[in-house]
C-alpha cells in the first residue's frame, strides 16, 4: 500500500514539474520577428475569412511562371490573371511577398462578375548570377480560394560570364613561373570582344586572349549553352612575387554596352623552399593569418611560427614594411637558442573601431615582412579578423 502511494505521488510530482517546465519555457522562449510577421499574415487571413462570399469565384489560369535565363538588365516582372467566374464581386487584397525585394500590384481590387484583374509580381535582381524564386500572396472573399499564391522563378546572369568565377593558382615555387587560364562567355547577340585587359600588377601578371569553343559540358549548361562565343584568357604569373599569398585584379574592357568593363581576380600562393610556416591560425590554403573575432575594446592576438632553412638562415633579420590596416601591431621573437626560428605575433589593439577583414581576400588586411635573404626577400600574409562594436 505504501509502495502504491509512493508511485502515485511520484507520478503527480513529475506531471507538476513538466507543466511548470513548459510554462517556464514559454515565458523564456526566444521570440523571432519573422514569427510575428507570419502571425500577422495569418490573423489577416482569418479576418478575411469572416467576409467570405460563396457567390464570388476566383479562377487563376496560371499561378507559376519560369523565366529560364534572364539577363540582369532585363526587368524582373510578370503579369498573372485572376478571373471572377462568380455572380458577385470578387475582392483581392495583398497579404505579403517572399522578401522585401519583391512587390505586387493589383490592377482591380474588386473584380466584377465576368471580369479580370492583372496581378503584377515584380522584383529586383540581388546578384549578377543567382537562381531566384519569389512569390506573392493575395487574399480573396472566395471561400473555396481564400488565398492565392503566385510564384516566379528563373536564373539571372550577366552579359559576360566567367568560368571559373576567379582563378586560383596551385602553389608556385619561388622563382618559378605559373600558367593557367579562364573562359569568358558572351551572352548577347553580338560576339564578345575584349578591347583591353589591365592588371593591378603588370610586372608579374601577363595575359593573352584566344578564341575558344563551347565544350560538351557547356552545351548542357543552362547558362553557357546560350553563349554567342567563348574567349580563353591565358594568365602567366612571372617570377618575382614575394613568398606567401597573392591576389591581383584584372580590369577587362569589352565591346558590350550593357557591361563595358568587369573585374576578375587571380589568386595563388608563392612557396619558398627555404621557409616553413606553421601555427593553428595560419591558413595554409590561402596563406592568410586568421586572427579571429573580438568586440570593441578587447584586444585579440594570433601567433605563427616562421622557420628559415639553409646556411644564411642563422643571420636572418625581419622588418615590417606594410601593415594594412595601420593599427595592427606586429612583434617578432626568436625562439630561445634558435636563430632561424621566429614567432610572429599579430595583435588587434583594444582601441580599434569596428572592422571586418575577410573571408574574401579582396577585403582582408595585409602584412608584408622584409628579410635580408636574397632568395626570400619578402613574406606576405593576408590578415583576416572581425572587430564588432559590441
Structural notes for this entry:
- The structure is a single chain.
- By secondary structure, the chain is mainly β.
- The chain folds into 3 domains: 111 residues, Immunoglobulins (Immunoglobulin-like); 112 residues, Immunoglobulin-like (Sandwich); 114 residues, Immunoglobulin-like, CATH 2.60.40.
- 13% of the residues lie in helices and 50% in strands.
- It has 3 helices and 28 strands.
- The strands form 5 sheets. Strands 11, 12, 14, 17, 18, 20, 21, 23, 26, 27 and 28 form an 11-stranded mixed β-sheet that branches. A 5-stranded mixed β-sheet has the order 2-9-8-4-6, covered by helices on one side. A 4-stranded antiparallel β-sheet has the order 1-3-7-5, with no helix packed on it.
- The longest helix has 27 residues.
- The protein is elongated, with a radius of gyration of 31 Å.
- The N terminus is likely disordered.
What topology emerges from the helices and strands here?
Blueprint: H1 2-28, H2 33-49, E1 58-59, E2 64-71, E3 76-84, E4 90-97, E5 102-106, E6 110-111, E7 116-123, E8 130-140, E9 147-157, E10 160-163, E11 167-168, E12 172-173, E13 178-186, E14 194-199, E15 205-212, H3 216-220, E16 229-237, E17 243-254, E18 261-271, E19 275-278, E20 282-283, E21 288-295, E22 300-308, E23 318-324, E24 329-334, E25 341-348, E26 355-357, E27 365-373, E28 376-388
CATH superfamily of the largest domain: Immunoglobulins
Q: What structural class do you assign from the helix and strand content?
A: mainly beta
**CATH architectural group of the largest domain:** Sandwich
- CATH level 1 name of the largest domain: Mainly Beta
The biggest beta sheet reads: 11 strands, mixed
Coarse shape:
elongated
Amino acid at each position: 500500500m505504501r509502495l502504491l502511494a509512493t508511485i502515485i505521488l511520484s507520478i503527480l510530482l513529475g506531471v507538476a514539474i513538466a507543466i511548470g517546465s513548459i510554462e517556464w519555457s514559454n515565458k523564456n522562449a526566444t521570440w523571432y520577428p519573422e514569427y510575428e510577421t507570419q502571425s500577422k499574415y495569418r490573423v489577416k487571413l482569418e479576418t478575411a475569412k469572416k467576409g467570405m462570399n460563396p457567390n464570388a469565384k476566383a479562377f487563376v489560369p496560371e499561378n507559376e511562371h519560369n523565366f529560364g535565363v534572364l539577363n540582369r538588365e532585363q526587368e524582373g516582372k510578370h503579369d498573372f490573371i485572376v478571373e471572377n467566374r462568380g455572380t458577385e464581386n470578387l475582392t483581392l487584397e495583398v497579404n505579403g511577398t517572399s522578401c522585401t525585394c519583391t512587390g505586387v500590384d493589383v490592377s482591380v481590387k474588386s473584380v466584377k462578375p465576368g471580369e479580370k484583374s492583372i496581378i503584377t509580381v515584380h522584383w529586383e535582381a540581388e546578384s549578377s548570377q543567382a537562381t531566384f524564386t519569389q512569390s506573392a500572396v493575395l487574399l480573396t472573399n472566395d471561400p473555396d480560394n481564400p488565398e492565392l499564391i503566385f510564384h516566379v522563378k528563373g536564373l539571372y546572369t550577366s552579359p559576360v560570364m566567367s568560368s571559373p568565377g576567379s582563378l586560383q593558382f596551385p602553389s608556385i615555387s619561388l622563382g618559378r613561373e605559373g600558367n593557367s587560364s579562364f573562359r569568358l562567355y558572351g551572352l548577347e547577340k553580338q560576339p564578345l570582344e575584349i578591347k583591353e585587359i589591365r592588371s593591378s600588377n603588370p610586372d608579374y601578371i601577363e595575359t593573352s586572349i584566344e578564341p575558344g569553343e563551347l565544350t560538351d559540358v557547356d552545351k548542357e549548361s543552362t547558362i553557357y549553352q546560350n553563349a554567342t562565343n567563348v574567349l580563353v584568357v591565358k594568365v602567366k604569373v612571372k617570377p618575382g612575387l614575394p613568398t606567401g599569398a597573392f591576389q591581383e585584379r584584372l580590369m577587362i574592357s569589352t565591346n558590350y554596352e550593357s557591361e563595358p568593363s568587369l573585374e576578375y581576380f587571380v589568386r595563388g600562393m608563392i612557396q619558398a623552399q627555404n621557409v616553413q610556416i606553421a601555427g593553428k591560425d595560419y591558413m595554409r590554403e590561402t596563406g592568410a593569418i586568421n586572427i579571429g573575432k573580438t568586440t570593441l575594446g578587447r584586444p585579440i592576438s594570433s601567433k605563427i611560427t616562421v622557420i628559415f632553412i639553409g646556411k644564411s638562415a642563422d643571420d636572418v633579420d625581419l622588418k615590417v614594411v606594410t601593415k594594412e590596416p595601420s593599427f595592427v601591431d606586429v612583434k617578432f621573437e626568436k625562439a630561445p637558442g634558435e636563430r632561424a626560428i621566429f614567432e610572429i605575433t599579430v595583435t588587434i589593439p583594444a582601441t580599434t573601431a569596428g572592422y571586418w577583414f575577410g573571408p574574401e581576400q579582396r577585403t582582408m588586411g595585409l602584412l608584408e615582412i622584409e628579410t635580408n635573404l636574397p632568395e626570400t626577400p619578402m613574406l606576405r600574409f593576408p590578415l583576416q579578423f572581425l572587430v564588432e562594436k559590441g
